[in-house]
Amino acid sequence: MPKVHTVLGDLTEYLDYKESYLRAGSFKVYRLFAFKMREFLSVHNLSHLETKKVTPAQCEQYKRFILKKHSDPTTRNKEIGQMKCFFYQFTKPGWERYRVSPAANVELVPKQDSEMHEPYSTEQVAEIFGAILAKRDYWLLLYIYFIHYTFARPGREVRFLKVGDLKPRALLIRPENSKTRRTKTPTIPKPLEELIGYLSVKNYPLDWYIFGTDGEPGPIACGQNMYYYRHKEILKALNLVGRYTLYGWKHTGNIRAIQLGVADRELQLQNGFKEHRTLEIYLRRLSAYYSTEIYDKFV
């Protein structure tokens, strides 16, 4: 008697496959998807549903299940996209349950721009740097400099940097830490290079994390909230209220580079954008913060 392949059984196999090559942080997304899919199957009495008998209508039903759970369009689309990827997997050689996925025509919800992390004004930059220097928290300043000058993201891209990732005039952001899963090699501008030299970062072992658990380079990376907290304390002391975060320094750096006349191609490479179109979209979102054309001429 041929084996009956249920959605629940195939879901387990799908998770095992994903876990075999994804890092823990990435795999977590699939575990959460599986949790919601199992909940959906249970609520609708579909626990014994065979994968090959899943219908487009049931996929639409799962979409409505997600829409009730989440209101944010980006989150909704990520969840719906997970479902579409799951069923598409079973159209591939060695996985076949269908020729065409039953979720193929399930549409995503209309997109909208997410609220952006606020960039810092020139005055705010001076105020924040002044407060950090007054506290002599040079490692927080270095953390910010990496974001501000190399356009690295403040999570894994900065937190997991190692001393050996500091190359002559360039920074190596490894694919396992990069959001895009590609190697990035942004240029290290002079102010960042000088602070790295002042703190003697390159004198530490090459395999040590630049931001270790003790507030300086060490064999173990700092916790994910360590510098977020120290940065937040500075903002709180200065009464800076709004969507001001460490990520905002990436936007601030881009704006400053634009104002100084850095070419688009250099901006694209420094950001690690594969396509110029991605840079265009990003700059469009930033334009309100750096464009002086309307301000100066519309009088």
Computed structural class: mainly alpha
Average pLDDT taken over every residue = 91
Number of helices: 13
> How many angstroms does the end-to-end distance come to?
81 Å
H and E string: HHHHHHHEEHHHHHH
> Overall 3D geometry?
elongated
Main beta-sheet annotation: 2 strands, antiparallel
Organism: Spirosoma endophyticum
Keywords: DNA recombination, DNA-binding
Protein name: Site-specific recombinase XerD
GO molecular function: DNA binding
Q: Can you offer a commentary on this structure?
A:
This protein is mainly α. A two-stranded antiparallel sheet has the order 1-2. The protein starts with 6 loop residues before the first helix and ends with a helix. It has two domains: 7-89, DNA polymerase, domain 1; 122-297, hpI Integrase, Chain A, CATH 1.10.443. It is built from 13 helices and two strands; from the N terminus they run αααααααββαααααα. Keywords: DNA recombination, DNA-binding.
How do the helices and strands line up, and which of them pair or pack?
Layout: H1 7-19, H2 24-43, H3 56-69, H4 73-89, H5 122-134, H6 138-150, H7 156-159, E1 166-167, E2 170-171, H8 190-198, H9 226-237, H10 248-259, H11 264-271, H12 276-290, H13 293-297
Helix pairs in contact: 1-2, 3-4, 6-8, 6-10
GO molecular function, one term: DNA binding
Protein name: Site-specific recombinase XerD
Keywords: DNA recombination, DNA-binding
